[in-house]
Specification:
The complex is a heterodimer of chains A (271) and B (361). By secondary structure, chain A is an all-alpha fold. In chain A, 81% of the residues lie in helices and 0% in strands. Chain A has twelve helices and no strands. Chain A has helices spanning 7-36, 40-49, 51-84, 90-102, 105-116, 123-128, 137-163, 166-173, 178-207, 210-216, 226-235, 239-270. Chain B is of the alpha+beta class and 361 residues long. Chain B contains nine helices and 21 strands. The chains are: A mainly alpha (271), B alpha+beta (361). The interface between A and B is medium-sized, with 17 and 28 residues.
Chain lengths: 271, 361
């Protein structure tokens, strides 16, 4: 590429970008790690081994373990429908998929409280059948599902639209059935977009705070996820412990970034 | 296997892509569907393949109604305009696909599949490319892989959508001759779609010319080229000169000349158009008796190529194109700006745009 701007402009722009990233991204991440190890590695490990911390990790893994696969199924189905068929209400469906991006997670949580809470619309019916959703694990899973809905579908729609339907048609004419076409032609074509969507979806599912906070009820060791557990520890002035648990989320962010970079590199090299 | 399309109509929303189209392709023939974009030719091909369902009418294979048959059970090979190769598979896997997805009891053993794939790759001269991915091939090579893939399942019918559309002129020439030879070797009933009249006339046994969702004319290349039944077909199959005029008492009057029409054609018409192909115009220094002729000035000469193209301006300012053999051009010694006589060896007159009342001289 030909460079036209004078060196001073270039260096100023680069400096601003680096400074900004350093101040708002690298510094906080570094602080998390520094604070986590302030009382030594022993205290760090102890904070993670605490039964409540372990329960929070387990609940976070459970919520993500349910939300991510469901979103993969929903995301592929929705992207397939939007990219490959024409039907009335297509625009409305796309807007609906984006809804969780535009609604505050707190509102999303409140919606579930109003629906499934004791005083909610379905509350009496749920109580009669002895099902608890709010202030229990099902509510946390539902809230996580809500906020993560767009991730997989959003990644796949442009990929599938760009690829069109010709390869699937070719497979059909060659005698392949619906499943054969899906597994042998469609999935290999979207695999990187899908992986990208899954890691972003997973990062959000594990890191979600607002919506989950509203429906959780903060019952320690039972309805606290990692982010909620961090908050509780911090509010009780267990700063080092809070940062120790928070470092798990920071680690997740790093792993996500690494996979994301790898996928982008891979996609570039395939074209 | 013979194909018969009966009274097919296909609507996309309010747009009628095909209007009551019927077409018969006898077993073993190579037929071209020729028409401009939007004429419905690709839709017709996709209906034969089962990739679209007709709103009315039916499709028959060997006399058997196949309208409701799933594309996977039709035993057709389809070559897509942009090849639609499976981008995540090697050339070998692409060609093997149709064999590998067969139900277990019909599926050949992996060794048999490999043997068949190599046979086909030899047929399309791509044996050394078996391990490559589609993105590593040239356009012409991809086209041949698409063809090998379609032939792998031993289809009874081969359908090709603009098979040479995306290739450059030289490769096109080679590939269409090669396709013709291939068709003669394996003798499979084939239909291909094209917007290029040279391609249709050179390769096909028969040509169906489509226009706005209808088949305007169907016949051998010789028939449709020499005896077009409508102004559209005249226009679409090569260059043509138009002379606008009127018919009075069996004689057509154009600005520059008049033309006596054969008996039995329309005696009077307020407006009529005479069509003459450039190679049916002759140029001379003196008027030729017995043929309709008119004076014109040479505006441009292009002598590069097998024929010499001459552009002339008539007295009324109209532009006429003539094509002469190189010899004739040299004998006449034509120069730019020279005044000459143009005579018409053959032309055809239409009094309506749909051209039912055409007449030749």
């Amino acid at each position: 590429m030909r460079v036209t701007e004078p060196a001073s402009v270039r260096w100023t722009l680069i400096a601003i970008a680096v400074l900004f990233l350093g101040l708002f991204l690298v510094l906080p991440l570094a602080t998390v790690l520094l604070e986590a190890f302030r009382n030594g590695a022993g205290a760090y490990l102890a904070a993670l081994r605490e039964p409540e911390a372990l329960a929070a990790v387990r609940l976070t893994l459970l919520a993500a373990g349910i939300a991510v696969p469901l979103n993969v199924v929903f995301g592929i189905a929705a992207a397939w429908a939007i990219a490959k068929f024409e039907f009335p209400g297509k625009q409305a469906l796309m807007t609906l998929i984006d809804l969780p991006f535009s609604v505050s997670p707190v509102v999303a949580g409140l919606i579930y409280v109003l629906l499934f809470g004791r005083q909610g619309w379905l509350g009496p019916w749920l109580a009669a059948h002895d099902v608890t959703v709010i202030f229990a694990v099902p509510g946390i899973v539902l809230a996580t599902l809500f906020v993560t809905v767009p991730f997989v579908a959003r990644e796949l729609i442009p990929v599938m639209q760009a690829q069109g339907t010709e390869e699937e048609e070719a497979a059909r004419v060659l005698g392949a059935g619906g499943w054969q076409t899906f597994w042998r032609v469609t999935i290999p074509n979207i695999k990187w977009g899908l992986l990208y969507g899954v890691i972003l979806c997973n990062a959000r599912a594990m890191g979600e705070f607002g919506a989950v906070s509203v429906v959780s009820g903060h019952i320690r060791g039972r309805t606290t996820t990692i982010p909620l557990h961090v908050e509780i520890l911090y509010n009780e002035y267990h700063t080092a412990a809070a940062f120790a648990v928070a470092s798990l989320l920071a680690l997740l962010a790093l792993v996500t970034l690494i996979i994301k970079t790898f996928v982008e590199w891979k996609v570039q090299h395939e074209h | 296997m013979s194909i018969e399309v009966r009274n097919v109509t296909k609507l996309f929303g309010h747009f009628a892509a095909l209007k009551d189209v019927s077409l018969t392709v006898p077993s073993g023939e190579l037929v071209a569907l020729l028409g401009p974009s939007g004429s419905g030719k690709t839709t017709l091909l996709r209906i034969i393949a089962g990739l679209e369902t007709p709103d009315e009418g039916s499709v028959h294979f060997d006399g058997e109604d196949a309208t409701a048959r799933n594309p996977r059970d039709r035993r057709v090979g389809f070559v897509f305009q942009h090849y639609a190769l499976f981008r995540q598979m090697t050339v070998f896997d692409n060609v093997a696909f149709g064999l590998r997805v067969k139900p277990r009891f019909e599926r050949p053993s992996p060794a048999k599949i490999a043997e068949r794939v190599h046979e086909l790759l030899a047929l399309v001269q791509l044996e050394r490319m078996a391990g490559r991915y589609p993105s590593q091939l040239s356009g012409g090579q991809r086209q041949r892989v698409a063809l090998a893939r379609a032939l792998a399942v031993q289809p009874k019918i081969l359908l090709l959508d603009e098979p040479f559309g995306a290739l450059d002129a030289k490769v096109r020439q080679e590939l269409r001759r090669w396709l013709r030879r291939l068709h003669d070797e394996i003798g499979i009933t084939s239909v291909f779609v094209t917007h290029d009249q040279d391609e249709a006339l050179e390769v096909a046994d028969r040509v169906a010319v489509l226009h706005e969702g209808r088949i305007e004319q169907e016949g051998s290349p010789e028939e449709v080229y020499n005896h077009p039944v409508s102004p559209f077909v005249f226009h679409f199959l090569g260059n043509v000169n138009l002379f606008h005029g009127r018919i009075e008492g069996g004689t057509m009057h154009v600005g520059e000349f008049s033309l006596e029409l054969p008996k039995g054609t329309q005696a009077d018409a307020a407006s009529a158009v005479a069509y003459a192909r450039p190679h049916l115009l002759d140029i001379d220094h003196t008027p030729l008796p017995g043929r309709p002729h008119f004076r014109a000035t040479i505006r441009h000469i292009n002598a590069a190529g097998p024929v010499v193209r001459v552009e002339l301006a008539t007295g009324s300012g109209g532009i006429v194109h003539a094509e002469l053999p190189q010899e004739r051009y040299r004998v006449l010694g034509l120069q730019r700006g020279a005044e000459v006589y143009v005579s018409v060896k053959d032309m055809k007159v239409f009094t309506s745009p749909h051209g039912t009342s055409g007449a030749g001289i």
